[in-house]
Design brief:
Chain A: This is AAA domain-containing protein. Chain A: Keywords: ATP-binding, Helicase, Hydrolase, Nucleotide-binding. Chain A: It holds the Pfam family AAA_12. Chain A: It comes from Micromonospora tulbaghiae. The complex is a heterotrimer of chains A (440), B (385) and C (504). Chain A is an alpha/beta fold and 440 residues long. Helices cover 34% and strands 21% of the residues of chain A. Chain A has 15 helices and 19 strands. In chain A, strands 4-3-5-2-6-7-1-8 form an eight-stranded parallel β-sheet. In chain A, strands 16-15-17-18-12-19 form a six-stranded parallel β-sheet. Chain A has a three-stranded antiparallel β-sheet with strand order 11-13-14, with no helix packed on it. The longest helix of chain A is centred in the N-terminal third of the chain and has 18 residues. The N and C termini of chain A lie far apart (47 Å). Chain B starts with a helix and ends with a helix. Among the domains of chain B are: 191 residues, no CATH class; 51 residues, no CATH class. By secondary structure, chain B is α/β, with parallel strands linked by helices. The longest helix of chain B has 28 residues. By secondary structure, chain C is an alpha+beta fold. Chain C is 40% helix and 16% strand. In chain C, strand 11 and strand 12 form a beta hairpin. Chain C starts with a helix and ends with a helix. The chains are: A alpha/beta (440), B alpha/beta (385), C alpha+beta (504). At the B-C interface, helix 5, helix 14 and helix 15 of B face helix 1, helix 3, helix 6, helix 9 and helix 13 of C.
């Protein structure tokens, strides 16, 4: 039997070998939540650059680019790193390093061994061709964006998480449904449909998800791949120095989640407005209470335990008005709680925390829409945590799912979306049902 | 206390049982939250007759004669000459390495005039047995048995009885698996077909897949002998020439299986339905219903419906349920209630929005939202005039 | 659906009268619209049976396919429809004018003085035109299967109209039901609104009848034949099927003529009510004042119309069956850019549309309570005007310090950035720093009116209603990268196979 670390290392070596020797110009690496996707980008880019040829790294958002620049610059202090940016870009302190050069003009970065920029910035590069490119979060990149930049590179490594949210468009059209180069699909989908022989690798170990979460998330959202938790149950634990108050449900759900990794705080069934005040208050209260109780987390990074701080807690919701309402509730509570990260599933993609609290997208609703059922949304929300995830929702979600009409139109040649959002929601809810704490 | 089958029989009353088929079974997924529909379907009530009797005759299922004729013509053309056209499709359009194929028609049935059962019953049963036999032989005969079966008969248990199903074609021997073939008369133009019609065809095909899987299991051969990939055969572009597309119905299978398994739910719903409720039309000798519409309406009111405008195109009771739901936000759209913070009644929504009604505590938030919207709207309209 | 539209629906249901969801009309209504009401033969693929067409409401042209199942007759039908449509199109394309420009450029752009505008009853009518275009644009005018030149030309134009209608901002092809529901909410659902008869019954009930009753009556397909292109099954059984049978069995031309006359009259009865309803809908919409940006968008439609007519005169290849990878990516960008501009223009023009954005927190309206109009700062070497204003609002605004590029429709060239936000639950105070639209120079007071004054009502939003949007670069078609299948084959040129393509 091999260790997770050895498995992961073997996967890394295999990926690099495939990328540098494959007959195909593209290689796809599927990475489940927390499987070391960024580490893969950082390691492979520095390793390739160290061999003497420049490497272009393409990410989807400016903060992802900044994050990668900082990590690459730290890992390879002797290499010159270029940050391709907008003209009015103001570098964050983390990016301002001696070996980092910032420019909006690719020609001014000609000396750099590694150049990092967003895909939308690369669209403006009209000349030149580079031997190596690594595209991060490739499942969130749209096919049309890839079309516009792909010709700049000889070989491309596509790295991403297939379980997260698909890219979207502001227009609705079926015009290209099923066409292999449909501009609205993800970059990886376009690549694979036009190049079915593209090698597909995957990262086998989730270092983020605890043993209590990895198999659940895998079954619900990644039914066709396998991955395991990189840790064993003894390595991850949560302690609550301040005991709960009697039978208070908020404390109870925190207790349950710290023991089992999951908690479902169930409010009585009711059809509510989107910013359901009770649910919003409960979500904020759980975050505040986690901090109040002096929660400590033990993990392989801090075997002696460390105090859970606000920046290690994320609160996720489906809609922006819900995010705004929760943030308001946290500010009203005041103190450290107001420093917690509150965001939509969209913006939490790729991020990692110790504890997460999720306002269930279907809470308080009578009918689900495709938006609420999208499997990527629930997947992002329930796979950001290293220790525990607490979901807040109203009773009645299973009934809502059972009553959901299944009449979505089907485009003949479109890719089969798997897992289906309805099934994924059922699977996750089935699991959460065993961790229910009714609100009093 | 009656068993579930007796209860359903009593609900159906003296009328004959409405025969389900793949299309009506697939339709169970279009509004699975509706208790009224669940009971009427499970009991095999003729919803069209009920709807007509209560003054809301349905247009559902009404097809143009001209369209039906062409559909039949197309199906015959595809199946003609011992499946020659089908074979060509499997080879050319889908690139399948099929050397040759037997074509076996399972449509012939034996009917015994002295048998007390109805001719249809006998025919269904006889064809089912024929299909069963054919499947047993083929499933056991190894990888060389390339056979296409036309007009097979399958069955599935629903509402306490067997529902007989007639797939257009079962093709065997594409990668050692049975494949369901569904022939439809809507076109595939430049490889694109109407997504709503495709979805309907696939749901129907999924019912056949489940029935065939069940049969394989009964024969001890294993469900996985039946492929979740179905073949859809349609006219190509603007011609009468057939073309084919392969589509995996994994998702449809999951949804339909769940609905078929939810007969438990019918038991649950029945508990809340008074014993005396029946949809017996009490037909006279000429088959004319004698039951009063008012009485029938009272019976319908005893089982709650979950109306949404989609019902108008999916369920024979749609227009009746719409008239009953008048005054409810559900009549205006499936998500409108969510947009208005969960208020079910239009008059209450307006009363809260205009401030005419003081909200109860649990409606305070909703009322605030509605007032904000209403004020904003009123201000804008006033500013414009 | 948004909260405001939902509220309009509920109010319509409660009051029994249509409710405006815009204060202005955002669709161009042409002075001489062309109306086209098509119907097709059931069971066949877009087999035209008949159309009522024309720009004179009192004299619709009825075109009937003599034998709808016969391929040649369908082509004859296309030829006759071409005769109706292509002449007005050609005439309009000939009258052009120079597009005025402020930019110094040597190339002169032209546009048509007026563009054609076609109204069909519903989205299925748009689909009819799209498929008719697909059926006819690849036909050859020479060789064994030669058709009249007007047939492929009609196909290319039908395709152009159908493609334009995919863009949010185009008014050259209008689906009547959509035009009406963009203006008014009814007390019924989208599904019922899709039936033109029921929708018009709600919006414009006959005197003395309630909207709900009128709409309920309109569901009777015998008294209110469907708006097509699909026919009523009952009509098929009672009128169409016997007529087609008699047509096939007709022993001589005389009998044929009689049957045809009977068929034509039956078809006209099916289409005339829809024809009248579409014209009535045009009148109703025309009576609503147009929003300021309508004329701007119609100018662009006229420009595109002329450009396409010009292309047809020079290159003139039919549109491909399917977008290639590059074409698709370009089109998607165009669809998105034009939609976002359209959305913004509507909101700028129309307070009720802007209210949708205010409700969702993407815009806010409030009163200026404090203003420092003459503030000048020196962020770099240069001194610049940066007035500060403070606005209070009761809108559920969702803004954070650092949010930039907000604009007030009253001063579209000026940008605002959020300095800070304070909220007490009911009311929010937002401090904004303004830049641009302040004249030149930094001495003396800011030009009058360039900075909102205390007491002014202002609306700020991130929507951008105009100006040029940079789209970045796209590869050339022949440089389609390997990720998207590599360079496609040559431009699609119709083959003899297309000319021979079977129709039945």
């Amino acid at each position: 039997m091999t260790s997770p670390a050895a498995d992961a290392e073997a996967a890394f070596q295999r990926i690099i070998a495939t990328f540098t020797s494959s007959a195909q110009p593209g290689v796809v690496v599927d990475s489940p939540p927390g499987a070391g996707k960024s580490t893969l980008v950082v390691r492979s880019s520095t390793q390739l650059a160290a061999d003497g040829e420049p490497v272009m790294v393409v990410a989807q958002t400016n903060s992802q680019v900044d994050d990668l620049v900082a990590r690459i610059a730290r890992r390879a202090p002797t290499l010159r790193i270029g940050r391709l940016s907008r003209a009015d870009y103001v570098p964050s302190p983390d990016v301002q390093r001696p070996n980092v050069q910032v420019s909006s003009d690719i020609r001014k970065l000609a000396d750099c061994a590694i150049i990092v920029g967003t895909a939308s910035k690369w669209v403006w590069v009209t000349e030149g061709r580079w031997p190596w490119a690594i595209i991060d979060e490739a499942y969130q990149m749209r096919s049309d964006l890839l079309l516009r930049i792909a010709a700049r590179f000889d070989r491309i490594l596509f790295v991403g998480d297939p379980g997260q949210l698909d890219p979207f468009s502001t227009v609705e059209t079926n015009r290209w449904a099923g066409v292999p180069w449909d501009p609205m699909q993800s970059a990886v989908a376009a690549l694979l449909r036009n190049n079915p022989d593209t090698p597909q690798e995957r990262l086998p170990v989730s270092w983020r998800l605890p043993p209590s979460a990895a198999p659940i998330v895998q079954r619900a959202f990644y039914p066709s791949t396998t991955f395991t938790a990189g840790t064993v149950p003894e390595e991850r634990s949560v302690h609550l120095p301040v005991a709960g108050v009697g039978a208070a449900a908020v404390d109870e759900v925190i207790n349950l989640a710290s023991e089992t990794g999951w908690g479902f705080y169930e409010l009585p069934a009711r059809n509510t407005i989107r910013t359901d005040a009770e649910a919003v208050a409960a979500t904020a209260a759980i975050a505040a209470r986690l901090l109040q109780r002096g929660t400590e987390t033990v993990c392989e990074e801090s075997p002696g335990g460390r105090r859970l701080t606000a920046d290690r807690i994320a609160i996720g919701a489906a809609h922006r008005d819900q995010v705004a309402a929760i943030a308001r509730a946290l500010r009203a509570i005041g103190g450290a709680a107001s420093q917690c990260r509150v965001d939509t599933a969209n913006r939490l993609q790729g991020a990692e925390f110790d504890m997460t609290i999720v306002l269930h997208p279907l809470s308080g609703r009578r009918d689900a829409t495709a938006f609420h059922l999208e499997s990527g949304r629930l997947c992002v929300l329930t796979s950001r945590h290293r220790h525990a995830c607490i979901v807040v929702g109203r009773a009645g979600i299973p009934e809502l799912l059972d009553a959901h009409p299944s009449v979505e139109p089907v485009h003949l040649k479109s890719l089969l979306k798997f897992p289906d959002g309805w099934e994924a929601n059922q699977a996750m809810l089935g699991h959460l049902g065993q961790h229910t704490v009714p609100a009093l | 206390m009656l068993g579930i089958d007796e209860r359903l029989a009593a609900i159906r009353g003296s009328s004959d049982r409405k025969r389900h088929n793949a299309r009506t079974l697939a339709a169970l997924t279009t509004n699975p939250g509706c208790a009224r529909r669940a009971i009427l379907d499970a009991a095999g009530v003729h919803k069209d007759k009920i709807a007509a009797r209560v003054g809301h005759p349905t247009e559902i299922g009404k097809m143009s004669k001209i369209a039906v004729l062409r559909g039949t013509f197309f199906e015959q053309q595809v199946k003609a000459e011992g499946g020659a056209e089908m074979l060509r499709l499997l080879r050319a359009e889908l690139g399948l390495p099929i050397e040759q194929a037997h074509y076996e028609d399972l449509g012939a049935a034996e009917v015994d005039a002295t048998d007390p059962r109805s001719k249809r019953e006998q025919s269904n049963e006889s064809r089912y047995q024929l299909t069963r036999q054919a499947m047993r032989m083929t499933a056991g005969s190894g990888p060389d048995a390339g056979t296409m079966f036309a007009s097979p008969m399958l069955r599935i248990a629903f509402g306490g009885v067997w529902v007989y199903l007639e797939p257009d074609l079962v093709a065997f021997q594409i990668g050692d698996k049975f494949h369901i073939v569904e022939i439809k008369s809507f076109p595939i133009i430049d490889e694109v077909a109407d997504p709503g019609k495709v979805a309907g065809a696939l749901r129907q095909a999924a019912v056949y897949v489940i029935a065939l899987q069940n049969l394989m299991e009964e024969l001890g051969r294993g469900r996985d002998l039946v492929s979740p990939e179905v073949l859809l055969v349609c006219p190509k572009d603007f011609t009468n020439q057939p073309t084919a597309a392969v589509r995996n119905v994994r998702k449809e299978l999951a949804v339909i299986r769940r609905q078929l398994e939810r007969m438990d739910q019918v038991r649950e719903i029945l508990r809340a339905v008074p014993q005396e409720v029946t949809f017996d039309l009490a037909a006279d000798r000429q088959g004319r219903p004698t039951r009063s519409p008012a009485d029938l309406k009272r019976a319908l009111n005893q089982i709650p419906a979950r109306y949404s405008p989609d019902c108008l195109s999916n369920c024979e009771m749609g227009r009746f349920c719409r008239s009953e739901a008048r005054g409810s936000t559900n009549v205006l759209g499936r998500t409108i209630r969510e947009d208005l913070g969960g208020v079910d009644s239009t008059s209450m929504a307006v009363a809260l929005a205009t401030g005419r009604l003081r909200p109860t505590d649990d409606l305070e938030e909703t009322a605030h939202l509605l007032r904000t919207i209403y004020t904003m709207r009123a201000d804008c309209l006033q500013g414009a005039s | 659906m948004s909260g405001l539209t939902a509220m309009a629906r509920v109010l319509a249901a409660e009051t029994g009268t249509r409710q405006a969801i815009c204060t202005l009309r955002h669709l161009h209504v042409a002075a001489r619209p062309i109306v086209l009401v098509p119907i097709t033969l059931a069971g066949e693929t877009n087999a035209p049976l008949a159309v009522l067409v024309g720009d004179d409401r009192d004299r619709p042209q009825l075109i009937v396919t003599n034998r709808p199942r016969v391929r040649e007759e369908r082509l004859r039908f296309a030829e006759r429809l071409g005769a109706e449509l292509l002449l007005p199109i050609a005439n309009l394309a000939r009258r052009t004018e120079v597009v005025p420009t402020t930019r110094r450029t040597t190339t002169v752009r032209r546009r048509a003085v007026e563009a054609p505008q076609i109204w069909v009853p519903n989205p299925a009518g748009v689909e009819f035109l799209r498929l008719l275009g697909r059926m006819t644009r690849f036909r050859s005018t020479v060789g064994q299967w030669a058709v009249a030149p007007s047939v492929p030309t009609l196909g290319i134009w039908a395709t152009w109209f159908a493609e334009q209608s995919e863009f949010a901002d185009s008014s050259v092809l209008v689906a009547t039901t959509q035009a009406l529901t963009a203006m008014w909410a009814t007390g019924q659902s989208d599904l019922e609104d899709g039936n033109l008869a029921a929708l018009m019954a709600w919006i414009d009930p006959p005197p003395g009848t309630s909207a709900a009753d009128a709409a309920a009556r309109a569901e009777d397909t015998i008294a209110f034949p469907p708006a097509g292109p699909a026919t009523d099954p009952q009509f098929d059984a009672v009128v169409l099927e016997p007529a087609l049978r008699d047509l096939d069995a007709a022993p001589d031309d005389q009998v044929r003529e009689r049957v045809l006359a009977r068929l034509a009259s039956g078809l006209r009865d099916q289409m005339q009510p829809t024809w009248d309803r579409v014209w009535r809908a045009i009148d109703l919409l025309d009576a609503v004042p147009a929003a300021p940006h309508v004329a701007v968008r119609w100018e662009r439609d006229r420009e595109r119309f002329y450009a396409f007519a010009d292309y047809l005169n020079t290159i003139g290849l039919p549109q491909a069956r399917q977008d290639g990878a590059v074409r698709g990516a370009r089109r998607l960008t165009d669809l998105e850019v034009r939609k976002s501009t359209f959305d913004a223009q509507r909101a700028y023009d129309d307070a009720l549309v802007m209210a949708e954005y205010r409700l969702s927190g993407e815009a806010f309206r409030g009163i200026v309570v404090d203003a420092d109009a003459d503030r000048v700062v020196r962020p770099s070497s240069r001194r610049v005007r940066r007035p500060l204003i403070t606005v209070t609002t009761r809108d559920p605004a969702r803004l954070a310090p650092g949010d930039r590029e907000l604009r007030d429709p009253q001063r579209p060239t000026q940008e605002a950035a959020v300095i800070d936000v304070e909220s007490d639950g009911a009311q929010t105070r937002i401090r904004l720093e303004l830049s641009g639209g302040l004249g030149s120079g930094t001495t003396g007071p800011a030009p009058s009116g360039s900075v909102p004054a205390v007491g002014d009502v202002v609306t700020y939003t991130r929507l951008k209603a105009g100006g040029y949007t940079h789209r970045g670069t796209f590869p050339n078609r022949e440089d389609t990268p390997w990720t998207h299948g590599g360079p496609p084959a040559e431009y699609y040129v119709p083959t003899s196979h297309d000319a021979a393509e079977d129709w039945s």
